[in-house]
Amino acid sequence: MEVAKKAGLKFFPSSITNYYHLDGNYYFNFQNCKLVVSAINDNVLRFRYAINQFTQDFSYAIDPKLKRNCLRFELQEHDEFYTIFTAALICKIEKADGLITIYDMRGNLISEDETGFHWEPNPNQGGNYVYCSKKNHPGECFFGLGDKTSDLNLSGKRLINWGTDTYGFGIDQDPLYRNIPFYYGLHNGIGYGMFFDNTFRSFFDFGYQDNSLVSFWGEGGEMNYYFIYGPQLINVAEQYAHITGVPEMPPLWALGYHQSKWSYYPELKVKEIANEFRSRNIPCDVIHLDIDYMDGFRCFTWDKERFPEPSRMIADLKAQGFNVVLIVDPGIKIDPEYAVYKEALEKGYFCLRSDGDLMHGKVWPGDCNFPDFTDPEVRLWWAGLFKEYVEQGVKGFWNDMNEPAVFDIGTFPDDVRHSYDGFKVSHRRAHNVYGMQMARATKEGVSKFMGNERNFVLTRSGYSGMQRYSATWTGDNIASWEHLLLADLQCQRLSISGVSFCGTDIGGFIGQPDGELFVRYIQMAIFHPFFRGHSSSDQGDKEPWVYGSTYEGYIRKAIELRYQLLPYIYTTFYQHVSAGTPMIRPLSFYDQFDSKTLSHQEEFVFGDNLLACPIKSSNSVGRTMYFPDGMWYNYYTGEHFKGGKEKWVDAPMDHSPIFVKAGAVLPHYPVQQYANEKVIDTITLHVYHGKNRHGGLLYEDDGKTDWYKDGDFCLRTFCVLGNRKEYRLLQYRKGPYDSPCKEFTLDFHGLTFEPKGYMLDGNFIEAPCIHKAKSYSITVPKNFKKVELVQ
Asked: Beta-carbon neighbour count of residue 97 at 10 Å?
């Protein structure tokens, strides 16, 4: 037998001795390890290695509904290598050492092993470190890994996945709360992805140690990764979502404005906050209650002095249009008189140390034990605890401190044991999924008790696939201009990492912003799907009205715009749910062939048709920003111009830079004080003139139930066709749902002629268009098929 190659303590695969085909996979036996190659579809290959024997295949990340769908998956053997083909990829595996090279069908090199897979024994903790090294192509860029606080392009960085409570984090601080071991590569116009499905502490080196190499490794477990071919970056994102799953449609109210603080209490204070929103006509849908609503921070309890009648309070808030979200942490107070603690202790639901003692740590309630959310029986028990809250009218829950965070020691020691759905592992393997499995248990419980009514779950920590269960936010940020930009980058990166339902603590959790900073924060956050103001108890008040009447007006205008854009945001969410398309997209995901999009990271595209950019410094009345290729309209002024260049943009305090893609159809609601406040019988469609065939979508369902899953929705596709002499808007409809809307007001922007009338489904309407400022407006039945403006 050939002796395995060895470098120091690192071991490398020896030569391949044979291969076989089984259950649609190709298995390769080396003299000292094994490899199985699977095709998820034509664009996705999975590589899984075993040093001894393959263990049972198990992953929390992979969507249980994932199906393999590969048109072609075949192998050819050559003298020195094997070649595996799909309909899109060519994978070459060297016989001598197992090195892997992947090409597209045109022969373009996409990915190439340098040293490839190798391993190193871990004598102190058992098992092996597992490594994989790829060649770094000249000029290659890298993206992803969740919400890292570095530049969008990760080239030259080394980063870690190990969920950590990082209060007041800074630029390039790592690790943070979430663990998403998925990254993108882009070189020579070709985009691809690597998803390293390993829940141990993992590392990613993008040319940091050696600029010719890209490496990823874990402190245990398997070398198990998915190669995802684009070639468009947006296609890679969609394929990753296909593998790890997408969320359900949220209730419409969850996309409205959320108001939170650590903490609002007693009940009188909560009602005061609600009354201020309504009396000041500042839209808001949700009030969050932080840990002080509980009895001594005991989960699933109420402080009876502060909140004597929770059901009545929640009903009163609901009558005003508010939904209530409660925080629930994992630490269960050690108290023999506390029913939740007693039951968990009696049934053995708490995490144990390796010596059999209970995992013990101090968090908000004081001395606590912690449920093992990787145990399905514990998840089922935890889910059942939400019954009373749901019966009281609570519609959403917020899981915090679930990295898991423990005061003084940071997190659980490595020797804590976990069920891991029957695999019996240490905390080294379970740490990065603990928060995700807590969110899962929460989601399953709330969904069970709310029936077909939609709910909302928020989590601070999670692993790849967390998006199936919850939204997230960027954690304990700071009231500073620096953190405003960090929030911009973090939410862009979360979105392309599968977690589009993300946001930030508007204004900063820590510190006190002035009115200008808060205004610019909230103007940016209009385009974060999770839209919440939140702050620490010792950092002053941060409600929209505390900065004086002038700033209050600017803040009200920003929140009102969010509510006007709800049909567009909701439609964009539908695109994420149905296809995995990221809601927030960096410019490079809009045009990866334009090198300038790689160096402009503050600008982002939201959905198909909106381009936005934050104002990043005080006393600013505008900024320079880059416009990608195409024609763009200023949302506020109607000015339009060709992209592919930088341009100064005016942005007085009452608005931030927002631009609309030419040819877009952008739906708007009237301003509401909360979602579903009004029966909306007219939706405005803003139609922007463009030379190329374009358009937009409008997705509608009841915004409340799961009936959309059974097809009870309506998807309207609008197509814009036009030139200097004619202009047509076509509509195609799919689905039976019939919303209360009866008609569309069509506002046409950027026309090169003044219409004298219009044809509606072949019938001429003599009445001329209503002339509005820089636009023309008509009102038509909502189920029109074609509108053609007539000169």
From this structure: 17
Secondary structure letter of residue 4 according to DSSP: P
Per DSSP, which regions of 518-673 are E strands?
531-533, 584-586, 604-606, 610-612, 622-627, 631-634, 640-642, 645-650, 658-661, 665-668
Question: Among the options 285, 372, 403, 788, which is catalytic?
Answer: 403
Query: Which class for 509: exposed (0-12), middle (13-18), buried (19 or more C-beta within 10 A)?
Result: buried
The answer on pLDDT for 496 being more than 80 is: yes
Active-site residue, from 147, 476, 602, 603 = 476
Q: Catalytic: 400?
A: yes
What phi and psi, each to the nearest 5 degrees, are found at residue 32? -135, 10
407 burial class (0-12, 13-18, 19+ CB within 10 angstroms)? middle
Q: Has this prediction a pTM greater than 0.85?
A: yes
Q: Is-catalytic flag, 403? A: yes
Residue 706 is a catalytic residue: no
Residue 2 has pLDDT above 50, yes or no: no
Contact by Cβ (8 Å): 362, 404: no
Give the containing element (helix H, strand E) for 736.
Answer: none
Mean pLDDT of 665-682: 97
Report the mean per-residue pLDDT for the chain. 95
Catalytic: which of 285, 329, 400, 603?
A: 400
DSSP output for 120-141: EE-TTTSSEEEEEEEE--TT-E
Report d(CA 721, CA 733) in Å as an integer. 17
The three-state secondary structure class of 11 is: strand
